[in-house]
Design brief:
It comes from Paenibacillus turicensis. The protein is α/β, with parallel strands linked by helices. It is built from three helices and four strands, in the order βαββαβα. It is globular and about 45 Å long.
Length: about 140
């Protein structure tokens, strides 16, 4: 049940590139975190250069204006090792399939309990499914 938000600087990516980025992120979520293929919720936000700030060398990583901020909000439960594998796999695949420098892939995983999600109809579907009904 991840929700993905990607922020980037205006003019750095085409519509086609964003589509490839989206498919790549989804494929890694499926492979690394066993996310169902229909669990596909992503949003992309472009920013003017005066709205998009970053340090080009923090932690000795050489970033450019093609930087992608990738936020993945998901239910807790993945091990530290799985998260580290996710970071590596996603940055590697974005590099090879979308020609994005690994240095320009900034990933944040944010865990949110299942009770904090409603997929529509005013229900907490993931929580209810996980707990055998509403409590």
């Amino acid at each position: 049940m991840p929700f993905v938000r990607v922020d980037y600087m205006k003019g750095q990516y085409t519509k086609e590139q964003l589509g490839s980025i989206s498919k790549t992120i989804q494929s890694v979520l499926i492979e690394q975190f066993n996310v169902p293929s229909k669990d596909y919720f992503q949003i992309y936000q472009k920013h003017e250069d005066f709205e998009f700030y970053y340090d080009p060398e923090y932690f000795n990583v050489a970033r450019t204006d093609k930087l992608l901020y990738i936020y993945v909000t998901l239910a807790p439960g993945r091990s530290q090792l799985k998260k580290l594998e996710f970071y590596q796999k996603l940055s590697c695949l974005l590099s090879t399939t979308c020609s994005i420098r690994q240095e320009d892939v900034f990933i944040m995983l944010v865990e949110s309990e299942r009770e904090n999600w409603s997929f529509g109809n005013g229900l907490a579907q993931a929580f209810e499914l996980n707990n055998g009904g509403v409590q």
